[in-house]
Amino acid sequence: MPAHLLLVDDHTLFRTGLRLIVQDHPGVGPISEAGSIAQACALPQRDVRLILLDIQMPGMNGLDGLRPLRDAFPGARIVLVSASVAPDAVRESRARGADGFLPKSASGEDILEAISLALAGLPCFPAASTPVPPTPPGAGQGAPALTARQLDVLHLLCAGKPNKVIARDLGLSENTVRVHVAAIFVQLGVNSRSAALLAAQRLGLVHWPVADAPH
What we know:
By secondary structure, the protein is of the alpha/beta class. 43% of the residues lie in helices and 14% in strands. The chain has helices spanning 12-22, 37-41, 62-72, 87-95, 108-119, 148-158, 163-170, 174-188, 193-202; strands spanning 3-8, 28-34, 48-54, 77-82, 100-103. Strands 2-1-3-4-5 form a 5-stranded parallel beta sheet, with helices on both faces. Helix 4 links the parallel strand 4 and strand 5. Helix 5 (108-119) runs parallel beside helix 8 and helix 7 packs across helix 8 (174-188).
């Protein structure tokens, strides 16, 4: 079923703009809004599955608001939204237990992709800060749940193309490509491009010869 999404930001104009973007996501259903942590926690709905939470707000900020929001909406994933993309801000967000981090400068496509990852239970932090968990024993034997776009990215990745070229070939931003690559690594249980290539071959996700394939 479409997910109930909650936007928490003290700027009404930003919430309105974000709503116009996220309402186009096929996995998003009802959208609620709140201008503060207290207002969000007072909402009667408890079926919220995803919260987009601004870090910088008057009163209780987004980082401090993670715990009360977890208590109020135990089934929700929380993605922090910030005007800053400093590594320290990303690390602090992860350390506080956020499920993702999204810069306010992100494109509409980046935002929709982050929502897809979050609703799928995957991390949606900037790729450079997203560690890939080790593959548990017995995992990876079935086909991973890659989207059509992630398969496009995987094919070009296995052909040895860098993110910049993949972005150009697919008409995406480099940041979107990095998000896709991070999600692919998580799904395949790998932490490098060469390991992703081997895993993709083993699972039959790519077939050689591939144009410009690495030797």
